Amino acid sequence: MMINLNLINNEKKKKISRDIHCIMIINGLAMLGLTIGIISILLYASNSYLGHKIDEMEKIGSKTSINSEIVAINQEMQHIDAVQKNFTKWSRVITNLMSIIPEGNTLHRANLDKKNNKIVINGLSKTRDTFLKLKEALEKSDLITDLNSPISNILYQTDINFTLEAKLNLQ
């Protein structure tokens, strides 16, 4: 059995009790402040780290954007290159064709088919002789091979509506 001796009066007991409560509150607040301080430091460090990572990601994103732009430009350049490889300078072909046509012949239409390397010429010759000169000039030309002239082209003496078909030499 234990005996309690109360040698302190009630006022001092209340004061001691208040002091203990104050110390406990102060210690609790100190612990709370310390915890808040540590959490603040951790949040600040995390914020700095995430900010740095976001900057890195933006740089990578801009590099990716630049790379995708480069890829798009390269694809456009390849397309342009393909178009240029398939380009035929028709003005050269037409100029050469026009320089071959002798006097007395008029061209109404010339269909140029690059896919089949073919030309179909329709026109009018004043006489059979002017038509034969046209045919001979076209046969001698480096621009045209395998000239095909239907027999109907030479049936009339004058005002001959002709049609000629040939292969184009585009090299």
Q: Can you walk me through this structure?
A:
It is built from 3 helices and 4 strands; from the N terminus they run ααββαββ. The protein has 171 residues and is α+β, with helices and mostly antiparallel strands. The protein has 2 domains: 11-87; 90-168, Gyrase A, domain 2, CATH 3.30.1360.100. Strands 1-2-4-3 form a 4-stranded antiparallel sheet, with helices on one face.
Looking at this structure, what is the CATH superfamily of the largest domain? General secretion pathway protein M, EpsM
CATH domain class of the largest domain: Alpha Beta
Strand order of the largest sheet: 1-2-4-3
So what's the overall shape?
rod-shaped
Unreliable runs:
none
Q: What order do the helices and strands follow? A: HHEEHEE
Radius of gyration over alpha carbons? 50 Å
At CATH level 3, the topology of the largest domain is Gyrase A, domain 2
How many helices in DSSP terms? 3
The overall strand count is 4
The secondary-structure class comes to alpha+beta
List the helices and strands and how they pair.
Elements: H1 10-85, H2 90-100, E1 105-113, E2 118-127, H3 128-140, E3 144-148, E4 158-168
Antiparallel strand pairs: 1-2, 2-4, 3-4
Keywords, separated by commas or semicolons:
Fimbrial assembly protein; Gyrase A, domain 2; transmembrane; transmembrane helix; alpha+beta; Extracell_DNA_Util/SecSys_Comp; 4 strands; 171 residues; membrane; 3 helices
Compact overview of the structure:
Helices cover 58% and strands 20% of the residues. By secondary structure, the chain is an alpha+beta fold.
